[in-house]
From TrEMBL:
An annotated Gene Ontology molecular function: peptide transmembrane transporter activity
Residues of the Solute-binding protein family domain: 273-593
CDD domains per UniProt: PBP2_NikA_DppA_OppA_like
Keyword Disulfide bond: no
The protein's name: Family 5 extracellular solute-binding protein
Keyword Hydrolase tagged: no
Amino acid sequence: MDTQRSGSRRKVDGDSAGGISRRAALAGAAGVMASTSGCVREFRSTVNRDDLEPLSLTITTLPADGDRESILLAREIAATLEAVGIDVSIEMRSQEEFRRAVVINHDFDVYVGPHPGGLDPDFLYETLHSLYADEPGWQNPFGFTNLLVDDLLEAQRDADGEQRRDAVEATLEALAIEQPFVPICTPLEHRLVRDDRFDGWADGHLATRTGYLGLEPQTDDSADQLRAVHMDARPSQNLNPLNVEYRDRGTVIELLYDSLAADLVATDGDHSLEPWLADDWEWLDESTLRVSLRPDCTFHDGEALTADDVAFTYRFLEDTALGGSAAPAPAPRYRGRVAAVDDIDVQDETTLELTVGTGQDVGEQALTVPILPEHHWSERAAAATIPGVRIAQGTTDAVVTDNLPPVGSGPFQYHDHTEREHVTLERFDDHFTLRADVALPEPTVDELRVGIDPRSTSAMQLIEADSADVTSSPLESYVIDDVDETDAVGLLESPSWAFYHLGFNARSAPFGNPRFRQVVAQLIDKAWLVEDVFHGYARPIATPVADEWVPDALEWDGADPAMPFLGSNGEVDVDAARTAFEEAGFRYDADGNLRVRQ
């Protein structure tokens, strides 16, 4: 763990409050901005001070070798907060430690980092619903609780078509007011590829399984091995699909494990939910979904994959203890998706019926969880024990196992690995995509070797030297302008549904106060950060969903329409910010420190 004091590197402007252009935020959300004179501020700072303390907070984030953009964002945000009277320190943690602190132990004040997001806005249900406020995982790491928001999140799950679109819009507008977290930007993803070795890079998004399927080898030896270089060592250390410390999007997991349905995403962002392990599905009525599996599918160890394994997977993700503990022990991933399924009735080896408690749109999203072999995972329902380590009650072996070697049913199977060096997969020749009657992208190489290299610059050198075929991780933004494209080497740009954000731990004061969060949101110049931190290779956002779901009222039009920045060109207007905090009910002392009840 590395802790440092923030540095106020940016210039701040305390004399230009009158020059700030302020637009009305949604539903009066920015009503904290009424003008207040200096003498009124001084008067207010002298009353009700006995139970107030200067605010001191820590920003938890990733180091430069874990995520360069995160630490740069954290430093800029820290400098701004210090300028307006908040004492700030920055705590940098490794990828695993960061996620353990934030999503497992909830041990943070605020944090800065990427969120995996989702193509469908229903990811917000598990991200923010109060049901999940005390659970570990990406489900509600903020501890955010708001019954009205809960109702909106549930309403968008229950609706379909245009009614759902309206419900999503209402949800997003409420979140723009509440600011449970501050969405900052969505990066543009860039990857370097060897066009002379493979064709078809643009057909599938390289953050998904389909980016590595259907490629056309261009040389005699291309079909032998697809060589990826990854800037994150975690896939070489842990291949547990349920583990949140080691999983973000889980691209390698998608290649190892099949799901009933797959969101087939193109490089331009177009996507559609299509049958994958399921041969087809149909709605028998408003709440009953019949799923037919492809026949004669097996796991990598040769055991048959049947409807019983599918039913087991949904039960197991709901309670990894399988009823063996005093309270359910849900998996720390896929919670929102499996919560859509109320019951499963196995009809025969390849047919099952799901009773769905949501609308059909969200119900079909439930088909995207990885299917686990019951004969491997049922034995992992026991309470976890790690010598010398205190394990939280309800933690099962399923959550803590590294799952090496993994046994799935996906288009690739595990071959070998060396921690922090590589994980190598080989084609699963019995996979259904290789059947003549199946029109889905298939594995076209004998082997996929994912080598580990920590930096974009050295990963680029591997591509340029023909020692690798693709950077499976997106390149860091600062190197993109240095890429020299040739006939052999191309730069592939694709949209992202992950987003960078500032997260609040609403379990403690003042972060549970929406007025505090609103003011902090207005201290972040998202457009300036996109240029300064991401070198322009990102889009500032007011809401964290895919473009197709963003309502007109929250579209970015040069500024945040809900929480406009209190300043200009990256320079915060200190007077305006302090006025905003005071109008939100907070106080300053004579030394200019923001004071709060703690």
